[in-house]
Specification:
single chain, 183 residues, mainly beta, six-stranded mixed beta sheet, four-stranded antiparallel beta sheet, 43% strand
Length: 183
């Protein structure tokens, strides 16, 4: 009996979990400060979250405008990330401007459909001045037992006489995204 396939699979799974941690989280220009309200977002399938993206003009002399873009190369198709605005500005020296980053997760997303998106802010008058921040996205476990009582009796209602015993079969479905034990 060979253990090589299982060992290879274990190493592959371990490296897949650690891959987002090895990616550089930020590439930054000295004049552009970018912050997110959350660096790592956990969503339950079928939900959405709004994150605040704030851009600060760290230049002491000049008013700047910025173009915003997303790199979704490492984002599974279950995720949908959009920017409310594609540009910000004018931003006065040492001042900030904010926009919303909308993150949605499909209702059928599997537990391992994690990914990341890079948000890049580029000065509109100089493409060499940019800052990139990485948002990590993870699928949260969803424990969701579903009972189908409509198939029992009269749409879930059963008439029982006093001192009568009735055995009722109720279909139970795991509508979550993780293996569960339903008792």
């Amino acid at each position: 009996m060979s253990r090589t396939p299982s060992l290879t699979f274990a190493i592959l799974m371990f490296s897949a979990v650690l891959l987002p941690l090895m990616a550089p989280p930020v590439a930054a220009s000295e004049e552009i400060e970018v912050s997110l309200s959350s660096q790592h977002e956990y969503l339950v399938p079928g939900t959405a979250a709004n994150l605040s993206l704030t851009v600060t003009n760290d230049n002491l002399m000049y008013t700047r405008s910025y173009n915003l873009s997303l790199d979704t190369t490492f984002l599974p198709p279950e995720w949908n990330v959009t920017l409310a605005d594609s540009s910000l500005g004018p931003v006065f020296p040492t001042q900030s401007d904010s926009t919303i980053l909308v993150v949605r997760l499909a209702s059928g997303a599997a537990l391992g459909a994690n990914g990341q998106v890079d948000v890049t802010v580029v000065r509109s008058d100089d493409a060499n001045e940019s800052t990139t921040v990485t948002l990590l996205l993870s699928v949260a476990p969803l424990y969701l037992p579903a009972l189908d009582v409509g198939a029992v009796g009269d749409r879930g209602l059963i008439a029982i006489e006093p001192n009568q015993t009735v055995d009722v079969d109720i279909p139970v479905e795991n509508a979550g995204n993780i293996d569960d034990s339903i008792i």
